[in-house]
TrEMBL record:
<keyword id="KW-0414">Isoprene biosynthesis</keyword>
<feature type="binding site">
    <location>
        <begin position="99"/>
        <end position="109"/>
    </location>
    <ligand>
        <name>ATP</name>
    </ligand>
</feature>
<feature type="active site">
    <location>
        <position position="11"/>
    </location>
</feature>
<dbReference type="GO" id="GO:0050515">
    <property type="term" value="F:4-(cytidine 5'-diphospho)-2-C-methyl-D-erythritol kinase activity"/>
</dbReference>
<comment type="pathway">
    <text>Isoprenoid biosynthesis; isopentenyl diphosphate biosynthesis via DXP pathway; isopentenyl diphosphate from 1-deoxy-D-xylulose 5-phosphate: step 3/6.</text>
</comment>
<dbReference type="GO" id="GO:0016114">
    <property type="term" value="P:terpenoid biosynthetic process"/>
</dbReference>
<dbReference type="InterPro" id="IPR020568">
    <property type="entry name" value="Ribosomal_Su5_D2-typ_SF"/>
</dbReference>
<feature type="domain" description="GHMP kinase N-terminal">
    <location>
        <begin position="67"/>
        <end position="149"/>
    </location>
</feature>
<protein>
    <recommendedName>
        <fullName>4-diphosphocytidyl-2-C-methyl-D-erythritol kinase</fullName>
        <ecNumber>2.7.1.148</ecNumber>
    </recommendedName>
</protein>
<keyword id="KW-0418">Kinase</keyword>
<feature type="domain" description="GHMP kinase C-terminal">
    <location>
        <begin position="218"/>
        <end position="294"/>
    </location>
</feature>
<comment type="function">
    <text>Catalyzes the phosphorylation of the position 2 hydroxy group of 4-diphosphocytidyl-2C-methyl-D-erythritol.</text>
</comment>
<dbReference type="InterPro" id="IPR013750">
    <property type="entry name" value="GHMP_kinase_C_dom"/>
</dbReference>
<dbReference type="InterPro" id="IPR014721">
    <property type="entry name" value="Ribsml_uS5_D2-typ_fold_subgr"/>
</dbReference>
<dbReference type="GO" id="GO:0019288">
    <property type="term" value="P:isopentenyl diphosphate biosynthetic process, methylerythritol 4-phosphate pathway"/>
</dbReference>
<dbReference type="InterPro" id="IPR004424">
    <property type="entry name" value="IspE"/>
</dbReference>
<keyword id="KW-0067">ATP-binding</keyword>
Length: 318
């Protein structure tokens, strides 16, 4: 039976702007997404029957049809029924390193890995854009997770334009294990509080998204000016999450007082907060300092760095 092992990196949002409402009920967004070195490991095995099985080393992650990796395999089975009956079912084993429900796209990157892995297992020969299109059916962050890197994402987050790769920037991530922020709650609350300022005219929606393409942070990314990128971080969802979750606000403030932190921001709908830092040594020192300032065992801290890729194949077997 054939098998593939893949790595599935997390993402952070360097920029997240909510532009307006879309007719499909989602928000029109302009984001800059960045892959980071913190990754889950996904193993895919062909099994000689027609079932999809998911195993995960984290008990809080569902392994049934609620799991995005499961949904990705199901999507492939319905899209490619001949290959499914030829090659049989799939067993998916997820080794989690990315914190769950953290605003780091953990589930989305697992789903992207399953799309890439099944494409290989079933010899489908799909292109990157075909994989991204399939991913859009599973969630707005899934298309980005396929190839990763540094990307402008507009629409619901599924329309991608690559930016020059950033990689030599270090990151400290901070998240309280027991704290979860519902993404649906964050967007709904934002709509309740701030929809007055939404761009209503659809032509202007596109113009606003286009403005992000030429805006300050994009220029800083083209210039690879880390200090400037860090100054231009932005996330509209902080406006609703920080007032409601004082622990997230506290992490923001503790990071902001560290000398070597160039900039700090919440990722996605939180509750993970990240800090951008020039060197690994400084990042380790910041991690220690935050640990000293908040000696709470519920607080998880990770040192990682930006990376230029999405899903990667580690090994394959017969
Ligand atoms: P995003 O940044 O895309 O909003 P997230 O990082 O906030 O995602 P996930 O880690 O994907 O959040 O988890 C959100 C919820 O999805 C969890 O409550 C979890 O139960 C469920 N889930 C489904 N599939 C997975 C998966 N493969 N890995 C982790 N969580 C999953």
């Amino acid at each position: 039976m054939r098998s593939y092992t893949l790595t599935a990196p997390a993402k952070i949002n360097l920029y997240l702007e909510i532009i307006g409402d879309r007719p499909d009920g989602y928000h029109e967004l302009a984001m800059i997404l960045q892959s980071i070195d913190l990754a889950d490991r996904i193993e895919l095995h062909s099994i000689g029957n027609d079932s999809i099985r998911v195993r995960c080393d984290r008990p809080e992650v569902p392994t049934d049809e609620r799991n995005l990796a499961y949904q990705a395999a199901e999507l492939m089975a319905t899209q490619f029924p001949e290959a499914f009956s030829k090659y049989g079912g799939v067993e998916i084993t997820i080794n989690k390193h990315i914190p769950v429900a953290a605003g780091l796209a953990g589930g989305s990157t697992n789903a992207a890995a399953v799309l890439v892995g099944i494409d290989l297992l079933w010899n489908l020969g799909l292109t990157q854009s075909e994989l991204e299109e399939l991913g859009a059916n599973l969630g707005s962050d899934v298309p980005f997770c396929v190839a990763g890197g540094t990307v402008i994402a507009t629409g619901r987050g599924e329309q991608l334009s690559p930016l020059p790769n950033l990689d030599n920037i270090y990151i400290v991530l901070a998240k309280y294990r027991s704290l979860e922020v519902s993404t649906a709650w964050a967007y709904k609350t934002y709509r309740q509080q701030f929809s007055d300022s939404y761009v209503r005219d659809t032509a202007n929606l596109a113009a606003r998204a286009a403005a992000v393409h030429s805006g300050g942070i994009v220029k800083a990314i083209f210039e690879k000016n880390t200090a400037e990128i860090a100054q231009k971080l932005h996330n509209d969802l902080e406006r609703v999450v920080l007032p409601a979750y004082p622990q997230v606000l506290q992490l923001r403030e503790v990071f902001a007082t560290q000398e070597s932190v160039l900039g700090t921001m919440m990722s996605g709908s939180g509750p993970t907060v990240f800090a951008l830092i020039e060197s690994e040594q400084q990042a380790q020192a910041v991690k220690l300092k935050v640990r000293e300032t908040i000696p709470d065992e519920d607080l998880e801290l990770f040192v990682t760095r930006m990376t230029t890729h999405g899903i990667q194949i580690v090994s394959s077997g017969k």
